[in-house]
């Protein structure tokens, strides 16, 4: 990997450079629509703040054989997910939003992952929470989702694995973005 | 001078040649060496079961005792090869049974193994000792029962990631009381219940048992009893590790674990209560291999606590829930790490904290002996890869996959050697990459040792396919799917190279008579062979 490839213009070796990235691009992203059918809802609502470093939350991957993981492994992990899901029956938690006159309640067991939950919250409260990143939290968004865990601490939604979140979340609070800044920076 | 050595001397010299490439090279020197070598070869490796037929195997190597066979193309792992494409082991077992081969060991990968095959195997070879099935399918626990009942000297039964139909097996009870020779038993991939009492008795009487991997159905108290019987175990796969930490069983387990000071390799934890993990802390210091890639129940915090104690780790398989920070802990603790595999835990969503290039760079800085990598990550940069290559000059296996959810990225697998990395490349896997035919031509020209090339969803067409047709006889196989090659291009290739099987694989609903030459081929698999088109091809496979 250390030996650089000499870029000989005649051979256009750059075209054959083994690199990570899309065909025909250097830095920018390119739609490969023949291969990926995206979940329209999530890409429209969550794409707005997508830049090169942050990935948009996933549309359901409908490409056969992607990611390249053996079906045995996928099946085992998905079985275990189902098992832990069905262990706890219905988890209704209160959801408050800063400035809203009354609270709501949702069953977080109904959702499979963070994007599902965030979409539901955004719909319910007609707000925008943007995209999660480990470093910046929901920086830049109007609102940020937070939750109270078993220890009584207020945590940023998205830090821990989904299953852990479901079992430790006691209530949700949709905080104004300006207030949530402190939580985003670790 | 060597020609005048008696054959017995040559044979003795050859007995020190254990690797297949060495033996193959020796057999090419002259007729006499070819003959001595073929009569003395005991282990045969066949990388593509359709490259040669079982009859030829037996006639060339009559004294074969150990056979390794691989069947389906690698992309079958990712559901790109239709279910009944082929790769049946039965003809091989049948031929060896007829030829009275003294078969002792059979190792199969990506093959279709029927219960009938297993029964024939069990009954035909009285000295049979070792069965290793990796990523195979087609058999049930009834086939395992046949092996258990009939193979009197069985030492190894190793089932890795197979699809096995579970018939509520009493297969474990089929090991007779006289069976005491087992040294390795791995049934972690079985989905059903096992007869726990039979298992406990089996373990108790096999004093040479070194490796034991259980499935999820073995309850905690059985695990504790088994470990009490076998403190000599070197490799343990714990299936269910969800004890009640307040229970007497867990207490006993803690005590027993401390005595298992020979355990060097740990895996499984398919079902886990993280509060029981402290029971394995005493053995962590001895571990050289740890596989927690099937244990999503172990959260990052617990994972890190565990890894802190594993200072001698050489091999680590883990889920990306460990996060970049967790990988930082690995980097500062596991200085002897050679092999790292980070698997994705969340296939479609971006809910979990996954890993990025940061984690990999940290590992490379802390673990300079790293030589084998599989890394699924959210993002990667070229700069990071350059740093990694600088830090770890000894790569022999390198696989990287970015899970970028909107646009899939390239998957590359390449062994890296000091300096000359592309020339040593033996296998390359390309997905959603490349701009034009030149890319594939470049690879085919530059990688002198290339054995397997698999390409999907990349814009390589007939020009790339037909530029160097002779190359394909030096390779084991080429797979191209969802690329730009046409039916006409494949036909041309097949006509030019009669010693290649060029298979066009059509999904059933697309098969409508012979396609037009200009039509793009959805899936093509070609491989060199000495035995022409295979006779067991299903009707959706057209061999040109």
From TrEMBL, chain A:
Pfam families: AUX_IAA. The keyword Nucleus applies. GO terms for cellular component: nucleus. It is found in: Nucleus. Its main location: nucleus. PROSITE patterns: PB1. It comes from the Eukaryota. The keyword Transcription applies. Transmembrane segments: none annotated. Residues 18-53 are annotated as: Disordered. Keywords: Auxin signaling pathway, Nucleus, Repressor, Transcription, Transcription regulation. GO terms for biological process: auxin-activated signaling pathway. Residues 90-177 form the PB1 domain. Gene3D superfamilies: Phosphatidylinositol 3-kinase Catalytic Subunit, Chain A, domain 1. Belongs to the Aux/IAA family. Homodimers and heterodimers. Aux/IAA proteins are short-lived transcriptional factors that function as repressors of early auxin response genes at low auxin concentrations. PANTHER family: AUXIN-RESPONSIVE PROTEIN IAA17, AUXIN-RESPONSIVE PROTEIN IAA24. This is Auxin-responsive protein.
Automatic annotation (TrEMBL), chain B:
GO terms for molecular function: auxin binding. GO terms for cellular component: nucleus. InterPro entries: COI1_F-box (IPR041567), F-box_dom (IPR001810), Leu-rich_rpt (IPR001611), Leu-rich_rpt_Cys-con_subtyp (IPR006553), LRR_dom_sf (IPR032675), Transp_inhibit (IPR041101). Residues 5-46 form the F-box domain. Keywords: Auxin signaling pathway, Developmental protein, Nucleus, Ubl conjugation pathway. Pathway: Protein modification; protein ubiquitination. It comes from the Eukaryota. It is found in: Nucleus. This is Protein AUXIN SIGNALING F-BOX 2. It comes from Abeliophyllum distichum.
């Amino acid at each position: 990997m250390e030996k650089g490839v000499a870029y000989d213009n005649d051979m256009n070796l750059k075209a054959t450079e083994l690199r990570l990235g899309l065909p025909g691009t250097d830095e920018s992203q390119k739609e490969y629509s023949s291969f990926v059918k995206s979940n329209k809802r999530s890409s429209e609502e969550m794409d707005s703040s997508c830049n090169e470093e942050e990935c948009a939350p996933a549309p359901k991957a409908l490409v056969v054989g992607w990611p390249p993981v053996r079906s045995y492994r996928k099946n085992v992990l998905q079985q275990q997910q189902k098992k832990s899901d069905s262990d706890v029956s219905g988890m209704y938690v209160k959801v408050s939003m800063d400035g809203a006159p009354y609270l709501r309640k949702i069953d977080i067991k109904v959702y499979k992952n963070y994007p599902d939950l965030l979409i539901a919250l955004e719909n319910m409260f007609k707000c925008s929470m943007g995209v999660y990143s480990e470093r910046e939290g929901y920086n830049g968004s109007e609102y940020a989702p937070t939750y109270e865990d078993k220890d009584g601490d207020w945590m940023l939604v998205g830090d821990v694995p989904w299953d852990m979140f479901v079992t430790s979340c006691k209530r949700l609070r949709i905080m104004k973005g300006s207030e949530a800044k402190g939580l985003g920076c670790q | 001078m060597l020609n005048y050595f008696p054959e017995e001397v040559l044979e003795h010299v050859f007995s020190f040649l254990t690797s297949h490439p060495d033996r193959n090279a020796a057999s090419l020197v002259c007729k006499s060496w070819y003959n001595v070598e073929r009569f003395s070869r005991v282990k045969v490796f066949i990388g593509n079961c359709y490259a040669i037929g079982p009859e030829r195997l037996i006639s060339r190597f009559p004294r074969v005792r150990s056979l390794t066979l691989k069947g389906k193309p690698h992309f079958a792992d990712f559901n790109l090869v239709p279910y009944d494409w082929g790769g049946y082991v039965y003809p091989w077992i049948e031929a060896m049974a007829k030829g009275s081969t003294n078969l002792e060991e059979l190792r199969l990968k990506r093959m279709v193994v029927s219960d009938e095959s297993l029964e024939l195997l069990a009954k035909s070879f009285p000295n049979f000792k070792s069965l290793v099935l990796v990523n195979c399918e087609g058999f049930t626990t009834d086939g395992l029962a046949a092996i258990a009942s009939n193979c009197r000297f069985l030492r190894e039964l190793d089932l890795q990631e197979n699809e096995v139909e579970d018939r509520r097996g009493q297969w474990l009870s089929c090991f007779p009381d006289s069976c005491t020779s087992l040294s390795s038993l791995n049934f972690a991939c079985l989905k059903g219940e096992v007869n726990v009492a039979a298992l406990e008795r089996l373990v108790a009487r096999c004093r040479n048992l070194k490796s034991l991997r259980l499935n999820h159905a073995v309850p905690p108290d059985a695990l504790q009893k088994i470990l009490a019987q076998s403190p000599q175990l070197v490799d343990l796969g714990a299936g269910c590790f969800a004890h009640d930490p307040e229970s007497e069983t867990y207490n006993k387990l803690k005590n027993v674990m401390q005595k298992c000071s020979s355990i060097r390799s740990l895996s499984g934890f398919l079902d886990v209560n993280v509060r029981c993990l402290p029971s394995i802390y005493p053995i962590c210091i001895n571990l050289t291999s740890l596989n927690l890639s099937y244990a999503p129940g172990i959260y990052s915090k617990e994972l890190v606590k565990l890894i802190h104690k594993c200072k001698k780790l050489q091999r680590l398989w883990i889920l990306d829930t460990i996060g970049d920070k967790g990988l930082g802990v690995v980097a500062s603790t596991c200085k002897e790490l050679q092999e790292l595999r980070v698997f994705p835990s969340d296939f479609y969503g971006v809910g979990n904290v996954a890993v990025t290039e940061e984690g990999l760079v940290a590992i490379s800085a802390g673990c300079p002996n790293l030589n084998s990598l599989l890394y699924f990550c959210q993002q990667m940069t070229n700069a990071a890869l350059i740093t990694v290559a600088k830090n770890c000059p000894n790569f022999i296996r390198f696989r990287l996959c970015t899970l970028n959810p909107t646009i899939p990225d390239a998957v590359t697998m390449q062994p890296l050697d000091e300096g000359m990395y592309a020339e040593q490349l033996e296998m390359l896997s390309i997905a959603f990459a490349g701009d034009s035919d030149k890319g594939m031509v470049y690879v085919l020209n530059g990688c002198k040792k290339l054995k397997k090339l698999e390409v999907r969803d990349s814009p390589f067409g007939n020009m790339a396919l037909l530029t160097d047709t002779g190359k394909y006889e030096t390779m084991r196989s080429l797979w191209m799917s969802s690329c730009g090659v046409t039916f006409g291009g494949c036909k041309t290739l097949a006509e030019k190279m009669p010693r290649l099987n060029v298979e066009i694989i059509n999904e059933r609903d697309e098969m409508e008579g012979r396609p037009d030459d200009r039509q793009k081929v959805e899936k093509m698999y070609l491989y060199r062979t000495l035995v022409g088109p295979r006779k067991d091809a299903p009707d959706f496979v057209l061999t040109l």
